């Protein structure tokens, strides 16, 4: 992927898709900075990155808090010597159609992207080949009675991704998004549903032609591609990574 030596910041990088993205970049030889709220998982993932013999920086950060993002990004840039790639991965998973659900999704799924990108711009501009990858969802592409705020805000993320691409093209920065389907990983919500025998798990699995839920690494591979020189003529796009879930029965 020609990512060796790149300096990568993954917002929400301690578990699930974020962890797989961070480790994927590290395996390619990139220096990686991650943040998350949970200190234990953050330290564990930082150790995994460092074990790959690349620079690894981690610091706690509540992505719903503007001042914490404003603190973390410069710290990460200093630790890595700059920023070439920013991955906005975290989600507030606002499911309920009430003030709390909307506030959670807006603060983390939307405003954390706005704030982190603004904070990283000085370093992305001087990179010479800056790239931003936002993590959206296939929930952005269809109506839902289960998680209305989450889907609506992810649709806004897709729209903002295109706007970012137009705004930053003259600065040499590409912006794209990935839209994962249902992804299962240890400690995640889908694993919990499977272990509990929740009917929704089987319902979702039956919608996917491959007969299984996705793995975080399968999303991470697309993130790495979009951040790489191989995707140098791709910008303003949202790439669905769902194993055919949207076109399933």
From TrEMBL:
Any GO BP: fatty acid elongation
InterPro entries assigned to the protein according to its UniProt record, in alphabetical order: NAD(P)-bd_dom_sf, SDR_fam
Annotated family: Belongs to the short-chain dehydrogenases/reductases (SDR) family.
Protein name in UniProt: SDR family oxidoreductase
PANTHER family reported for this sequence: BLL7886 PROTEIN (PTHR42760:SF135), SHORT-CHAIN DEHYDROGENASES/REDUCTASES FAMILY MEMBER (PTHR42760)
Gene Ontology molecular function: oxidoreductase activity, acting on the CH-OH group of donors, NAD or NADP as acceptor
A Pfam family the protein falls into: adh_short_C2
């Amino acid at each position: 992927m020609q990512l060796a030596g790149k300096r990568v910041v993954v917002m929400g990088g301690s578990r699930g898709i974020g962890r797989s993205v961070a480790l994927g970049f590290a395996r390619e030889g990139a220096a990686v900075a991650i943040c998350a709220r949970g200190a234990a998982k953050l330290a564990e993932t930082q150790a995994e990155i460092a074990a790959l013999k690349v620079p690894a920086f981690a610091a706690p950060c509540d992505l719903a808090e503007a001042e914490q993002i404003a603190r973390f990004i410069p710290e990460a840039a200093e630790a890595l010597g700059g920023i070439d790639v920013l991955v906005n991965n975290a989600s507030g998973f606002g499911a309920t159609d009430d003030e709390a659900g909307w506030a959670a999704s807006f603060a983390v799924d939307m405003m954390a992207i706005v704030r982190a990108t603004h904070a990283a711009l000085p370093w992305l501009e001087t990179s010479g080949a800056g790239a931003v990858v936002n993590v959206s969802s296939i929930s952005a592409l269809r109506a839902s009675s289960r998680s209305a705020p989450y889907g609506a805000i992810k649709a806004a993320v897709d729209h903002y991704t295109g706007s970012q691409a137009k705004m930053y093209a003259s600065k040499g920065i590409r912006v794209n998004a990935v839209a994962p389907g249902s992804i299962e990983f240890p400690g995640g919500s889908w694993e919990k549903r499977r272990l509990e025998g929740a009917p929704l798990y089987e319902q979702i699995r039956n919608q996917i032609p491959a007969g299984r839920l996705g793995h975080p690494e399968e999303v991470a591979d697309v993130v790495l591609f979009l951040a790489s020189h191989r995707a140098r003529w791709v910008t303003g796009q949202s790439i669905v990574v769902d194993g055919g879930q949207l076109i399933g029965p």
